[in-house]
Amino acid sequence: MTPLKVVTFWVRPQGEEPLPEARALLEGLLNIFYEAFPEYAGLLVFSQSPRPPRYVFVYVNQGCTGLLPSAGRFLQGLLEQAFPQGEVRPYGRVWLEAP
């Protein structure tokens, strides 16, 4: 997988069933993330579409240019554990390491 500076995660259901209401789950998940990466505290926002399939979006606010690859991978893992019935897609810019 190409390292990304992630700005958005999109979670969508893999099957026919919509994702469950996720507000409390996402609040807890972000607290876990902020404990591991306190430098991002308060910089992530989430939303969930009100109608089926109830997509979930987690994204950085305007004060952040994106999550560094290690933080993005960690958050993606949390989202994959929280939504085993869903597909988690990261979106961002390719992270090029200095030679």
Task: Tell me about this structure.
- The chain is an alpha+beta fold and 99 residues long.
- The chain is 28% helix and 29% strand.
- The chain contains 2 helices and 4 strands; from the N terminus they run E-H-E-E-H-E.
- Strand 2 (44-48) and strand 3 (56-60) form a beta hairpin.
- The chain is globular, with a radius of gyration of 13 Å.
Helix content: 25-40%
> What order do the helices and strands follow?
EHEEHE
Number of helices: 2
State the low-pLDDT regions, or none: none
Major sheet, described briefly?
4 strands, antiparallel
Structural class by SSE content: alpha+beta
Would you count the extended β strands for me? 4
Average pLDDT taken over every residue: 93
Shape assignment: globular
Distance between the termini: 19 Å
- C-alpha Rg (nearest Å): 13 Å
- What amount of the residues lies in strands? 25-35%
Main β-sheet, spatial strand arrangement: 2-3-1-4
What oligomeric arrangement do these chains adopt? single chain
Based on the model shown, name its key terms:
alpha+beta, four-stranded antiparallel β-sheet, 99 residues, 29% strand
